[in-house]
Amino acid sequence: MRCPFCGNEETQVRDSRWAEDGAAVRRRRACPACDKRFTTVERVQLRDMTVVKAGGRRQPLDPNKIVRSMAVALRKRPVEGDAIEAAARGIVQTLERTGEAEVSAAEIGARVMDALAALDAVGYIRYASVYKDFRDPGDFDAFLAQARKLPNGRG
Ligand SMILES: [Zn+2]
Fold first, then answer.
1. Between the CA atoms of 135, 77, 23 and 113, what dihedral angle is there, to the nearest 10 degrees?
2. 63 in Cβ contact with 92 (< 8 Å)
3. What is the rounded CA–CA span in Å between residue 35 and residue 30?
4. Is the dihedral of CA 37, 42, 48, 51 positive or negative?
5. Residues with CB under 5 A from ligand 1 (ion)
6. What is the predicted pLDDT for the residue at 77?
7. 16 C-alpha to center of ligand 1: Å?
8. How wide is the angle at C-alpha 126 spanned by C-alphas 111 and 149, nearest 5°?
9. 9: CA distance to ligand 1 center in Å?
10. Lowest-confidence range among 19-23, 39-43, 58-62, 73-77?
């Protein structure tokens, strides 16, 4: 594993431990060249999935993109980064377990909406306002009325 700080090819494993209930191994590494430390996470990947976008373009499923899109929706909201990562990981694991090689961007969006609904009503509304492509304010009103019924929607 190459050092992310200085690019040195050889790094030493200082510590390995299970994470995510045995689904991953977290390794603490040290670089003998620059003496910096970093962590790698090794995770079982059941299958490489491809995301099919609305226009038909394909790209590899990137869990970090799911984390980022959720983080944008949850900006300045009281949701921990760990909770966002756990939710994104749950989405990816669920998708991988379907055994399908491809998933539509729309399905990922729907799963992100479900995850956000469970985390934070405001984040859910923010994400949905982009994802659902409301045509007019009336559509948004109907959606908000429904969002207020969420457990954390304070409705
Ligand atoms: Zn280094």
1. -20
2. yes
3. 6
4. negative
5. 3, 5-6, 8, 31, 33-34
6. 95
7. 19
8. 75
9. 8
10. 19-23
pLDDT (mean) for 88-92: 92
* Rounded percentage of the chain residues whose pLDDT exceeds 90: 49
Tell me the CA–centroid distance for residue 18 and ligand 1, in Å. Answer: 24
**What are the tokens at 123?**
């984040």
Q: Tell me how far CA of residue 97 lies from CA of 90, 101, 130, in angstroms.
A: 11, 10, 28
Q: Is the pLDDT confidence value at 46 over 70? A: no
CA 49 distance to own-chain centroid: 14
pTM across the whole model: 0.66
- Rounded to 5 degrees, what angle do the CA atoms 35, 41, 47 make? 145
According to DSSP, residue 67 is labeled: H
Q: Where are the beta strands (DSSP E) in 7-143?
A: 12-19, 24-30, 37-43, 50-52, 58-60, 102-104
Ligand 1 center from residue 64 Cα (angstroms):
24
Task: Render the burial of 102-132: b for 16+ CB within 10 Å, e for the rest.
Answer: ebebebbbebbbebbbebbbbbbbbbbeebe
Instruction: Please give the Cα distance from 143 to 134 (Å, whole number).
Output: 9
